[in-house]
Amino acid sequence: MTRAAPEAPGSDRVLERLMTLHPKIIDLTLGRVERLLAALGHPERRLPPVIHVAGTNGKGSTLAMIRAGLEAEGKVVHVYTSPHLARFHERVRVAGELIAEDALIALLERCEAANGGAPITFFEITTAAALLAFAETPADYTLLEVGLGGRLDATNVIAEPAATVITPVSIDHQQYLGETLGEIAGEKAGILKPGVTSVIGPQEAAALDVIEARAAAIGAPLTVANRDWQVWEERGRIAYLDARGLLDLPRPNLIGAHQVSNAGAALATLRHLGVSEAGCEAAVTRAEWPARLQRLRRGPLVEAAGGCELWLDGGHNPAAGEALAEALGRLPERPLHLVTGMLNTKDISGFLRPLAALARDLRGVSIPGEAATLSGPETVAVARGVGMKAEPAADVADAIAEIRAGDPGARILICGSLYLAGRVLRENG
What we know:
Elements: H1 10-18, H2 31-39, E1 50-54, H3 59-72, E2 77-80, E3 92-94, E4 97-98, H4 101-115, H5 122-135, E5 141-145, E6 163-166, H6 174-177, H7 181-188, E7 198-200, H8 205-218, E8 222-224, E9 229-234, E10 237-242, E11 245-250, H9 258-272, H10 277-285, E12 294-296, H11 300-305, E13 309-312, H12 318-330, E14 336-340, H13 348-352, E15 361-364, H14 376-385, E16 390-392, H15 396-406, E17 411-415, H16 418-427
Parallel strand pairs: 1-5, 1-6, 2-5, 6-7, 7-8, 13-17, 14-15, 14-17, 15-16
Antiparallel strand pairs: 2-3, 3-4, 9-10, 10-11, 12-13
Helix pairs in contact: 1-4, 2-5, 3-9, 3-10, 4-5, 7-8, 9-10
């Protein structure tokens, strides 16, 4: 007798309905979300003080460090991030806890009713639900991560945040944000607000020029990396320096040199908010952010890997590839094999090129359930084009089994997409 599949959680059914309200997944504008927020009584005007974070790389890690620092000071913090990895609930952390299933269903249904069937994207209506949750639950701070870009992102509805942050800007999502670094930086700079201090992470000159011009035009004070604050590694620790003085701190528990600059942006934000030195230390030592060079230590995929180390990363653009290569180069030496799945909207060769010299080979896989996935053979073709030895695999589990059979003590990195990372985390329990 065949056992029936378990029924999907109630929130999944509501989320599936919400995905049908607009023909496009991404359609950048503020009009629809502003209309819905007005119908809901403007929850965006009743939030605890907001820290709004944009950028191409490092948004999530920086936000995680800010959260760790604030919570170490005893502050209660709401957090909104995207995309999720395993479950939608990860996107909405209410007063420090992932949103409960019943609460999520109730919020989504309230937003669905207030929307009245009008066209609205999935990200817009779910962002409204998160803001509604945050407005109705007491907390000390709200951390909002931009979904895409900034200027027209659904999170950009906060008139007077406590601070804004722009992490490093690089080329990504050109079909939505523009072809040049300056155009993309202009979209990110759309989160700047008059009179609101913005912390600016390390930027290329073309991006910084645009950000500074926008700030000057609207009167937004900036505190800029390598001008108003500095962060660097020294003797196995990090040093942070700004006008308030010097901090001597442990290296971030998140791996990689790029996490040092992310820590700098988080520390600059925390210092602006008046957080103590102890809180700043907690920011770099207690932050948690899955699928950012995460070592997997338990679960069926880890068991299948046997004596191989199993690592996971969701980076997917050239800057992420460079950061990954640098971080992997710091680990104790082991043969490295990549299991890679990517979307066809990404610069695949740009991501893989920095990793080519480190990896013995690559196995290309498709990302199940993603219409825009590259097939395994397509990823392999790009990998070979940048000089890598590469073969397709049926799926991640098969790739791991093949690597274990041929190189039992190797290091395996599953990489190329947050969607692939989420799939892996679900399969690995």
